Amino acid sequence: MTATSLSDGPGLMTREQAAAYLGVKPQTLAVWATVKRYRLPFIKVGRLVRYRRAELDAFLARRTVDTGDPLI
Q1: CA distance 30 to 1
Q2: pLDDT tens, residue by residue, 38-55
Q3: Which of 6, 16, 52, 55 has the fewest CB atoms within 10 Å, i.e. is most exposed?
Q4: Are 19 and 29 in contact (CB under 8 A)?
């Protein structure tokens, strides 16, 4: 994988883009990665950190809480 494909690859987001997608600050994603708070896979090559959109969607699906309330 080249630097170009890391930057322009389909479905890949920078930490800032991923944070905006999840509604958190980029620093929050950095902390989660450091302390392994959540299982949120990322790609790291040197200083470049990228997140796959599919992994972010799977993360959100795992965090979805079903309240059990019927939709009427």
Answers
A1: 22
A2: 889 999 999 999 999 999
A3: 16
A4: yes
